[in-house]
Amino acid sequence: MTERTAADSEALVSLHGASVTYPTGVAALDTTTLSAAPGEFISLIGPSGCGKSTLLRLAAGLLQPTAGTVARTDDVSLGFVFQSPTLMPWANVRRNVRLPLELAGVANADDKVTDALRTVGLAEFDRAYPRELSGGMQMRVSIARALVTEPRLLLMDEPFGALDEITRERLDDELLALWAQRQLTVLFVTHNLYEAVYLSTRVIVMSPRPGRITAELRIDEPYPRTDALRVTERFIRQCQQLSDLMAANERPR
């Protein structure tokens, strides 16, 4: 049993010795301990199939650990953004964003929906349908849907992975602005080490399956971060350091 610390008591979500083995016998996640404190932006990075998405689902309460525990602050609200926008094609943007409020039985939700759409820059597209939007705009709708419930904890499973580099970098900047504006805590899965360094207060490196945390890199760059950071020696050095930590996972033990 992992001993709890004072920092854990302040965390919005904590995993203590959590592991997951699926009914098929596949061990997805090995003994993992991780806490996310208020205001952190934590990126999870590692090879495909290493349990990053499994860890997010544990944090969200969508999955129960086979062993160990997962604890969340009693009053914490959370939003989840998946790899694809998962929008209802028959519903317009406003209806897609309103869905979580409808499921929660929230009345008079129009103001909340409008605010969420305005936050992601899509207020003028509220009557459009998903097929009429670009990939980046569809992802903004998905983010608005996650924000409409006013979460404190935002879980994001490689949301920009299918987008081109220019769109990805623009959405990275918009995400950081949202994180600061709404004082969010973010757990963010990515395969892109440059994105991880650019966004995060710290980056968690995971091993091949069964996934476990093998390293942590703290990013001490000040916010707000801009494109100018991407060409500095500090940024390049931190990206190289993260690359070295990831490469160490591939070496024979």
Question: Describe it for me?
Answer:
The protein is of the alpha/beta class. It is built from eight helices and nine strands. The longest helix has 18 residues, at 165-182. The protein is globular, with a radius of gyration of 18 Å.
Keywords, please?
alpha/beta, 8 helices, 253 residues
Q: Please state how the strands of the largest beta sheet are arranged side by side.
A: 5-6-7-3-8-9
Structure classification: alpha/beta
Percent helix among the residues?
Answer: 25-40%
Outline type:
globular
Q: Can you give me a brief rundown of this structure?
A:
This protein has 253 residues and is an alpha/beta fold. It has helices at 6-10, 52-60, 93-103, 110-119, 135-147, 165-182, 193-199, 233-248, and strands spanning 13-21, 27-36, 41-45, 67-72, 78-81, 153-157, 185-189, 202-206, 213-218. 35% of the residues lie in helices and 22% in strands.
